[in-house]
Amino acid sequence: MSCWMPGCPALSMCRGLAALPIACLERAKDLKTRLGILIHKPELGHKTGSSSKLQLGSRRRDSSREVLEWRESFDQLLKSKSGVNAFHTFLKTEFSEENLDFWLACEDFKKTRSKTKLASKANRIFEEFVQSEAPREVNIDHETREITRKNLSGATSACFNEAQAKTRTLMEKDSYPRFLKSASYQDMSRQAAGRGSSKRSHT
């Protein structure tokens, strides 16, 4: 149907159709988004299947055992990634997390193989944690501080050993016992013990 006359209804219809593709595109985008959500829903449902639930249950049992092992020794706590995270959170409440951060930095430092990187890392750790008035100065005696300073002149993977050992002892004797008595750890250990007893009652 065509029309050349002004005011013809067909002409108005043609003008309306000219705007249609833009509206269609908008609708198509909206439908695509909705379809995408619907398509992904079965995958989400699949992830919460029986095998995933078994794996989750296994992880919970492992983590429960881990939490209870933290009270056996300070070493057990430091061996556990989640234990280190929980201890770090506790130290933040006492404003002494720099001790653990320094210990972790030293552990990472010992793994460095490049001599160039060893020297630059050593200086960075010393400036951040060890030197007097350092931004995150750890609580070590003057003698240990000076020994560590001298070690920097020929940096080796062992140059922080003494300072790290002193910091570790401080945490083990001072912060660690308080962590075990803290409300946060007591709550975690109760939950862990509860999960353990629940597991035994079902076997």
Which spans of ≥5 residues are poorly predicted at pLDDT below 50? 1-5, 9-18, 35-58
Second rung of CATH, namely the architecture of the domain at 59-194: Orthogonal Bundle
Instruction: Specify the CATH class of the domain at 59-194.
Output: Mainly Alpha
SS element count, helices: 10
Order of helices and strands: HHHHHHHHHH
Q: What is the average of the pLDDT values? A: 79
What's the CATH topology name of the domain at 59-194? Regulator of G-protein Signalling 4, domain 2
Shape: elongated
Distance between the termini: 81 Å
Count of distinct strands: 0
Task: Find the CATH superfamily of the domain at 59-194.
Answer: Regulator of G-protein Signalling 4, domain 2
Class from helix and strand fractions: mainly alpha
| Main sheet makeup | none
**How much beta, percentage-wise?**
under 5%
Give me the Rg, rounded.
32 Å
Helix coverage percent: over 70%
What structural keywords apply?
203 residues; mainly alpha; Regulator of G-protein Signalling 4, domain 2; 10 helices; disordered N terminus
Brief summary of the model shown:
By secondary structure, the protein is mainly α. It contains 10 helices and no strands.
Report on the architecture of this protein.
It is a single chain. The protein is mostly helical and 203 residues long. It has a domain at 59-194: Regulator of G-protein Signalling 4, domain 2. The chain is 77% helix and 0% strand. α3 (50-69) crosses α10 (183-201) and α5 packs antiparallel against α6. The longest helix is centred in the first third of the chain and has 28 residues, at 20-47. It is elongated. The N and C termini lie far apart (81 Å). Residues 182-203 are annotated as: Disordered.
